Amino acid sequence: MLQLEIDQKAIQNFNAHFGYFIEEHIVSYYNPDFVLVFSPFSYSMSFLKNEIIVSKIEDNRIVDVIQLSYRNLIPDSFLTHILSLDSIPSRIFRYRDIGLNRLRAEIIDELRLGAITAADKIAIWDDYHIIIKISYKLQMENILR
To answer: Which phi and psi (to 5°) does residue 6 adopt?
Structure first.
């Protein structure tokens, strides 16, 4: 297959004709159920099958779109912390034997299904009455309750 270069003018013309489509697509990733606030920015996370699309928002305007891995959002240190707690629900307790990757997969499924939501700097896992602190690095840090 012929490898073609793209001239800047072609990119500008494409944007002039189809820019609205790109804007609609970017806005479609905004998830009002999972918005974290770290002033002056807010971050909305849209949970896809293999990745997270993060919309960086300032003054009600999307200023950047970032791709984030689930492993970055849910680091091993957080999973180890949650499994070290004495008062975790039995459904989560069983992951002490099953392993961190399976627990991460469970959390990913819950995020994708909307069972974990966000408010300010925390994520709320209603099914288990768990509140998760999320750092400004967009990583789950620890359990607040």
So the answer is: -115, 125
